[in-house]
Every structure is written in C-alpha cells, then in structure tokens.
Amino acid sequence: MRGLPKGLPVYYFGMRLNILAFAAGILGVQMQPELPGWALWAVAGGLLVLPRLRWSGWPLRLLALLGCLALGVAWGAWRAEIRLADQLGADWEGRDVEVIGVVAGLPQDFSNGTRFEFDVNFRLTVETVKPVVPGRIMLSWYQGRRDDEQFERLQVRPGERWRFTVRLKRPHGNANPGGFDYEAWLLERNIRATGYIRPNPPQRLDDMVWQADYAIERLRHAIRESFARILPEESYPWAGVLVALVIGDQKAIQGELWTTFNRTGTTHLMSISGLHVTMVAALFGWLVSFGWRRVPALALRLPAQKAGLLAACLGALAYALLAGFAVPAQRTLYMLLVAAAAMLSGRIVAPSRILCLALLVVLLFDPWAVLAAGFWLSFGAVGALLYIGSAAVGEATDGWAKIHAWGVVQWAATLASLPILLLVFQQFSLVSPLANALAIPVISFIVTPLALLGALVPWWPILWLAHQVMAWLMVFLDWCATWPVWLAPAPPLWAALAAGVGVAICLLPRGLPGRLLGVFLFVPALFWPVEKPPEGEAWISVLDVGQGLASVIRTREHTLIYDPGPLYSAESDAGQRVVVPYLRAQGIGHVDVLMVTHRDTDHSGGTASVRAALAVDAVYSSVAGLGGQHCVAGQRWVWDGVVFEVLHPAAGAYSGDSKPNNLSCVLRVEAGGRRMLLTSDIEAPDEAALLSLRA
Q1: How open is the CA angle 17-21-23, to the nearest 5 degrees?
Q2: What's phi and psi for 568, nearest 5 deg?
Q3: 94-124: buried (b, 16+ CB within 10 Å) or exposed (e) per residue?
Q4: How many CA atoms lie within 13 A of 315 on its CB side?
C-alpha cells in the first residue's frame, strides 16, 4: 500500500474503521441538546470521502475517516429532523380529537385498562382546521372504574382498525440522574404523542388490515394468547419467560423476576439474544440440508450446503420478526446474511468485517439504536468474542480443552460487558459467570427450543416440560441471587472508556507483556468514590416523578427515602424507574429508613420495588399492613449531626376513621441552623394544628 508508514497496519484504515467513524458521528448527534444542520455535514463528508476513491496514502485515509464521521452526523441529524417534524400540534394538546387508525403493536394490559401503539390513518374534527396528530401514538384505554363503565368493555388486537376519540399530549419523560429516559424511548420507537381514549363509544371498523407488519403482530398476539390459555399465570409463574423467549414480549415477565435476573446477570437471556437466533437458524439450516441431500434432483440443482444456508437465513429472519426485531436479533440476522452472501459468492470475509457491516445496517435503519444499553452489550460482547477468537490457534479436542474454551468465552463476554454495566446500571453481578454457565445452555438449548415447538404445536405437555425445566433453573438462580452484587457510583465517561481499553488489554493472548496494565485501567470505574455530604449537613433531593412525591435525604453515613413515588402501571412504578436508579447512580445500595407517608398510590406505589432492590433497615409509615412501625409525632433521631423529627400524625389518629391524607407523616429535618418541613398531603386543618403547636 503506497503512502503508509512502515509497520502501520493497513487494515486500520479500511472499511471497518470507516464504519466505526460513521457510527461515532451518529452517536455524537444523539448526545447533542439540539440538532446540527445536516446538509452542511453531508457536503463536508462527501468532499472528504471523494478523494479517497481516486488516490491513496494515509493522509487521505484520515480525511476519509473524517468524511465518514461527518456523514454519520448528517445521517443521524437528517433522520432525527424528519422524525421530530412529525409531532402533535401545540394547540391540540389536551383536546378531544377523533381519529381512525390501526392497532400497531401488542396490547399490554394493566390494572384497569390496556395500552397499545396506534397508527393514525385519518384525523376527524368538526372544526375548520384539521388537528395536527402524529402518525404513530401510544394510547391507554381505561375500561373500568375511571370511566364508570359507560360503554361495553371491548378487547383490541393488532391489525384491527378502530375509530376513537382521544386526548393527547406530547412525549414527556422525567428528568432524574440515572433514571429511565422515557422520552428517548418513545422517540426511538417513533411514538410522537401519548394519550388516552375518551368515553365516547369507540367503533371497530375492520377486524384485520392485511399488511405485513400488522400480520406479524397478530401472529405474536395469537401465540401469547395460546400460551396464556395453556399455561395460566396463577398456576405457572414462569410462563411469562416462555412468552418472552418466543415473541420477545418482556412485559410478560413478572416484575419481581427481573430482580433475580439482574442480581444474577442473566437478564440478557430473557430477551431474544443473538445466541437464540443463531440456534434457530442452525436448526432450520440443518433440517433443510439433511432433507435436501436425500433428493438427487434438488441436490443437482443447488448443493445441499447452500440450500441449508439459505434456509438458515430464512429461519433467522422469521424468528427475528416474530421476536419484535430487537437490536440483538437484528445484529445476528445481518451478520448471517453477510456471511451467507460471502459463502454463496465463494469469498472469505473476516468475522470482524461481518460484525461491522451488521453495525452499519442497524444504524442505517435505526440511528436511535445507540440509545439502548442492549445495543452496546450486544455488539460489545460479540466484538470481544471475535477479539479473543482471532488469537486462538487450533480447535479444542479433549473434554478439558472444551471446558477451558467455554470458560474463556464466559470470561470474555463478562469482562466486555463490565464497563457498560457500570456506566449504565452502576452494578454487576459477582456470580454472573457461574449463573450463566448453567443458564445459557439450559435456556438456549432446552427451554427456548421447547417453547418454540410449543408455539408451533400448542400441546400442553410440550409447554409444561419447558416450564418445568425453567422452574428447576429458577431454583438455582434464586440461590445465586443471594450472592452480593458489586455497586459503584456512575463513573465518568472517561473512566468507562479507560475500562474498555483495559478489557482489550486483559483479553490479549497469554504470555504477552503488559496485561496487568488492563487491570489497573479498571480501577477508576470500579472504585469511583461516593460523594457524601459533610458532617452536619443534609442533602435533600426531590425527584421528578410526575403526579406524586419521592424524596431522598442523605447525611454523611445515612439515607432516608421520604415516599417512594407513584404507581405508573401494573408493571411500572417510580421506585423501579426513578428512585432505585437514582440511588444506584449515587453508589447507594442501602437505605436506613423508608418513610411511606400514606397509602395513596401516588406516594406509596414504588414501595415494593424499593424494598425488593435495596437493603432497607427500617420502615416508618401510616399504612396498615406495610410492616415496620407507625409514624407518630414525637419520634426523633440524630444522624451525623442532622436532627430528624416526626411532627404528625398523633398516636391517637390511628384509632379513628381518618382519611389517608390526614394520616400523612410529616417530617422536619434540621441541619446547620436550617430547617426543612416535608408535609406530604396533609390538609388545611392539619397545617393549622401544626402551626398552633409550633408557634
């Protein structure tokens, strides 16, 4: 290669690095507070890339990298500009709008209603100006006490066309450190407004709109209904896991199970991972190849190996679509398609090139994929496996060598995910390698094939066996979940990047000098210090939870939660979405006092999630049956020079028939001569009584 300095690897300036530069440009756009002008970036990228097509030399290759970076910025900005333009008109927020459209995704039931994605086809109104409504919205249909049963309770299925009167608002998420970014999640899914269905009688206009994506969603819905009928949840608690493994519906898994999966590092197995797609593809390919070579006429027209390869690609495509086409499934499908194209053409393509091409295709279709932790975990783990595989020589033959090879794979995947887990989730499971060593083969080679077979042949013994194997595995995972979990504050980006470099160094072949340096590069991310208030000070954080309250009070060595926030739905609450992520981001896994002021769900809805995820020493509340002790006026304690005192309710208030608001726990915090009063939802008479007592 002309123009390259001696010893500089030529492949560093090839297609792979260009794709990584393009991906970096897209990532840069997603991290900006406002969109850059895409046209200028596109022109700049084109001008920098064009010379690379005619001339060589390392300076021009560097310019080509900058050009690919600029093209990534332009692509991400252009796609984002188009998506953001499809928004709800400001004048139509909170107003009744009549729409006709199609149920576009799997409906999700919650306590007293259903939530689903809806493709809007027509906007109807009696006014002269048509409402500005986005093409895809998220609707909640409350069919219970909130609507007083003013119309017949109706069920919705994917592909049905309905006429609804809705009330919408623009997407809005909560602004909390370390919390779930609901607004970004909606943007990624192209949901540009949320709302609810009004009591005007809805009309089902068509039972099925025959379109490919709606047909797939209807099939997924039918499989979920079949599983629910054969394995009712009250008798088969792990049935939701089987549903998630077949159709990718993770909301079918009960909330408390996610705590076990998180503590054991097996969460990735409960979604459609690349391993599952590869297994299905291999099974399809083997079956077709096995039958193909036994029909001479077919084998003469097309070799059995190529027929099996095409069947494997079709099987992977079918499973990826059935599973909701998540990023890990996309990555595996695109890698299989590239590898198949190379084999059919007789070319040999390096695995790293295949992975980079899969990355390119994912980002071309979905530039917002970089916002998902699954994107980084998926590509990071596969990249690490390819990295260690490139240094492997020969193939393991005896049993111990195969066990060693399996252990190396587990070590590489665990190590590669560590910086991402620390940056995004601020924790990782110490028992993860052990848990995955058993869970991966059991889930991938026993439970998932049986669940898929049960979807094709809905026969109770097949699904019962899959559920029984899952039940045996859960005994082991529940034991693993009792092991400690490493918690650390969210490290800065530079520390996570340094840990990523440490991964690459630690995974170098044995015998190479300098591998110990990789361990030291992990130190900042693993041991990033917890920021604490000085002695005699209290830090009080009131979290953004929407309608309701959640506050965290920290002294130097203690933490108190004053209300864990509201219940959002049957599968979601502020404890899970806001309070626990916030505390983990601060490096806190232990709570000294959880104070639940009263029983209204906008204040107490996150209690179960907080108690399941964090170690809680004591509970103070006015809620019967919650455990712990009642809040009583006069309770007082001192932490690190900070005085805490409960001012309300009086002990006698619990013997009467008081409203929940009148029993709200009122807490006064005094530090450094300053006081803060937390009053929850007490009403005017209670406030007047407090003022008279403390005057």
Answers
A1: 115
A2: -85, -40
A3: eeebbbbbbbbbbbbebeebbbbbbbbeeee
A4: 21
